[in-house]
Structure formats: C-alpha cells, structure tokens
Amino acid sequence: METRSRREAEAVTRFEAPRGAIDRRRRPLRPGHVLVTIEDVLIITWPVRAESLRSVVPRPLEPVRQDRDGLVSAVLFRNRALRPAIIGLPRLSSFQMNVRIYVLDPETNSPTHVFFHGLYVSRRWLARISSALFGIPFQHLPFSIAVRRDADRIAEWQAHSADARLAVVARESTERLDATILDLLTNPHTAWFADSRSVLKRWSIWHRPQCVHTLDLESCAVPQVAEFDAGPPMTALFVPSVDYEVYLPPGAA
Fold it and tell me: Which residues contact 138 (CB under 8 A, 6 or more apart)?
C-alpha cells in the first residue's frame, strides 16, 4: 500500500518552463557582466487594468494586454553568489524583490520584456552600491524568506518584512498552467527601468529552462503592488533555483 507521503509527492504538479525567446539570448561573458544564483523564487502575478498601468509605464513601452488587463508580478527570491562574471569574486548574498510590469518589445511587439516599477534588496549597503555602480534605483527593504519542504513538496513558503507590512505565505498546489502564460511569466529576457534622472535604460539576461511548481497563496500582502488597485493574484509560481547571466551595465533605450 502506498504511503501518504508518496501519494502526496506524486500529486505535485511541476513544469519545465518553455525555452521561449530567452533561449537565443546568451552572450559571451565580458567585464561588467554579472553571474548570480537565485533560489526559493516566488512569482506572484496580478491582473491589473491596462489603462491603470499606462500612467506608470514610460513610452515607448506598452503593457502586455490579456483582454482588458495588463500583468504585474512581485518576484521574491534569495539572491546567492552574486559576483562579477570574469573574476568570480566577491560573492554577495541578499533577499530581493522586484515589482515588474510585463511590456512589449518596442521593436518586435513580442511580450518578452518587463519594466521594473520597483527594485528592493534586504541589505542597505548593497542597494547603495548597486545604485552607485549601475544607476539602478534599488531601494532598501529589510525582509527574509523561509521555505519548509516535505519530501519534494513545498510545505510552506514564507516572506516577511521587518515592519510586517510585506507578508506572504504559500503552499504547494496541483494547479496546471497554460504554456503561453508560463513562458510569459518565467522567460522575459530584457528589463527596463527609469534611472535617477528618469532616463529609460535596459539590460538583458539569460538562463536555462526552469523547473516550476504552482503554489496556493494562503495569505498575500505586498504593499508595493497595492497602488495598482489590483484584484486577487492569479498565479503563484515557485522556482527552486536558477543560474542567471546578467549583461550589465545597463544601456540607454
């Protein structure tokens, strides 16, 4: 007779995210490029009326639309072994959250880009260094992530800020996702942001395909998304670990 833990493990729904357009974006590594392993990644996504996003997305970017809605994600993760690509040292770590709006590639109109509405890191000095070196407007947000596993299941994923305003709890789900939405949420390859002078800049990334779990949100308070007047989240995706190549420094639009 099967044990309970075996039955539960077999009930877990996992996906290999589609390769998508990112598969062709790898570049030779050069000075200025960065390598990083990100772990315990949770991508929480909300539908938001596209008209509401239009006022915060700078031209020439246009929000991706699904019917009348655009999409906003809060991506929370443990940033481990952040390091220069060529020399490999020093290796830095932190918790990080990105609030991103999915936008169209201005040249091809493909939904492969994001605009970073907010970039947050748990270490104040790392936020300052990143902003000073690359002009990327990181903000300090003291928070932490904890993950409890039961065999291969995510028994509980938690994130909490020091002031308790950011508070997320999620558990393993068996929900299945359409491949198109999975590709959209896991494979954007170009990130845009407005620097301290409101100049629009971008950088790009590459990573291999990701193993993705779906999670159910038990509770979800992300004040950095509240300004969009978003409804309930539509999905929560968990990625155990993925290695990124980040092609810095950012370039002008």
Answer: 119, 120, 121, 126, 127, 130, 131
